[in-house]
Design brief:
It is built from 15 helices and 4 strands. The protein is an all-alpha fold. The strands form 2 sheets. Strands 1-4 form a two-stranded antiparallel sheet. The radius of gyration is 25 Å and the shape is globular.
Length: 410
Amino acid sequence: MMTSFLFRAMDARAGIFLALLAAVILLVPAGNLLVPEDSPFHVPTYAVALMGKYLTYALLALSVDLVWGFCGILSLGHAAFFALGGYAMGMYLMRQIGSRGVYGDPILPDFMVFLNWDALPWFWYGFDMFWFAALMVVLVPGALAFVFGWFAFRSRVTGVYLSIITQALTYALLLAFFRNDMGFGGNNGLTDFKDILGFDIQADTTRAALFAASGIALGLCYIICRAITRSKLGKVLVAVRDAESRTRFLGYRVEHYKLFVWTISAMMAGIAGALYVPQVGIINPGEFAPANSIEVVIWVAVGGRGTLVGAVLGAVLVNFAKTWFTAVLPDIWLFALGGLFVVVTLFLPKGIVGTVSQGWTALKQRKVSASAESGSGTPPTAPPQSPAAPANIAGPGKGKPLSSEPQPAE
């Protein structure tokens, strides 16, 4: 059953995307590890880490597109789930330092020794084991999303009000994690990582493996999102996005569908954060900043909301532009980002992928119409309506049912 569910995600578009992603996963590490440094095809280690960060951002954008593009939930707080997953991985990496820290304590991280902590807090127990940390990467953001969504969706909070509440959630976590007595490193966060699974985190092979892991996670989550959106569940989600009240009147428990996809999206964001931290080397409360969540929404809007592939493309393109602008013209980056969002809103409301897809569909329709006209010499007839769009949709008094039989006079 699960296999058939996942196979629904496979079509030409998904196959092309996954093939390109597989090529990137193979070629980038190979260019770093196998190609000599003096070769023009050599990929430097810093570029591997940078592109790995782009892949984690793409996964975060994918999680936002799942809830916003297909269910209509505009989240301005997904940075919270991303940061929680990152902190879970950061706690594991801090426990791996052991006595190699600045103060040489085999159990307490350096910041706890500096702040005169006597013992390890209870919520740090278990993070010396990778399997436990990996479990928390998924469970902590998922549990927070489930509790938050349970109350928000049952209360029928929607639209801009829900967006404001999600922004307030991430801001509250930002303030909490800034406190030194929370036990998460305060303003400085968690850093100075040494090992992951016993491998030197700074080694070229480890960097390449983390890049490949980010790409594989992105591919798997894309397949899951694609399977969800192409299933009957996905059709209901789109109905909730387009007409939530009508969907509820038809008997669907809308809050259950929204809660499910919201929780899945938060788990995906947590995985993205966990893969982000070892490649960047630090996690601090700044990752909770509401501006980060707003920036993710811009990535999705630029690439194309409701396309999945567009979210990935938008995240990579915008962050590549950010890397270039902050190095060459650092003073104008925020203006460029704001201008990009305005341009997309005015001239590309469907995003890059949505606009290209719409243009391609229109071009094919024109070709079909032209070939029909040249072949028959008569204008083409209107295509038959699909079963999903019934003929009599105007309602009583606003239209007549289409039928070949004569209608009685009124």
